[in-house]
Amino acid sequence: MAQSWVRAGMQAVECGARVGWMQSVAKTSPKGQQLLVVRCSGQDGKKKGGLRLPGGPQMPAYGSSGGYSKSAPGLGQFKPPSMFGRPAPNETTQEEKARVEAILEQIRGGIGTWQERAAGVSELQRLGFGLEEIYTQAYVPAPTQTSMVVAAQVYQSMVEAGCPPDLLSWFDESKVEILYSLRTLSAKQRRSAAEYVRDNDLDVVGALELAKAIKDHERRPEGRQGFSPVPGDCLAFSLHRAAGETINPEERSTFIERGLGVAVTDSAKLRFSEL
């Protein structure tokens, strides 16, 4: 059986028939790195080869060729367990336990607004709960949790941007995925996009197409002359590009027809006459 004891700052270890000494000393490298020096010797007292610990640069032990070495890639990289960052069970008060259970019950039962449940998911995540753990205890799939949290952030940015209550109220329980589709837009773009989505009763696919068109218009200063940054013209610009790129006459006609239908400004409509 392995034995270990401490004597004069060194640790004697026995493993099978091999007995030796191991001593660890904290050092600072010339570059200011905090390193751990591990010195080893056999039962006969002779110094053995260097011992490297996983996780980063190590000071060479006695017997090595000198210089700094790095442990094998990945040895120092690990995924924290789901309990990482969460208070130990004996440090959690009864009040905190009751709060967690109340949040889980709210999410499980679909109690309150989706914004309130999204806030509950965010709070659980801050307490150290992972997506899978929340799913196990509240039965809400991980993708849905992500959509709720991100959609709530989009919703809050619209509130801060001064969106009217009637626009905000339109994004009820069934519109979470639509709000999630607008996550790539700026706060100003989200407001105009949200109004366009509501006024035209777009679904998730339509909202995604709109968000992509708005970002595409923003990123392509060349070729967008005549197309204003309003949502309708952004969609028209996207359809104008699609019509110019396709070699299928029927598709081109469809893109042009759709583009003329969504274009807002006369200058945008005029651009389709070029095709």
Automatic annotation (TrEMBL):
Domain Rubisco accumulation factor 1 helix turn helix, first and last residues per copy: 100-159
Ranges where the Rubisco accumulation factor 1 alpha-helical domain occurs: 171-272
Region (Disordered): 44-97
Chain intervals with Low complexity compositional bias: 54-74
UniProt cross-references to InterPro entries, sorted A to Z: RAF1, Raf1_HTH, Raf1_N
Protein known as: Uncharacterized protein
Organism of origin: Ceratodon purpureus (Fire moss)
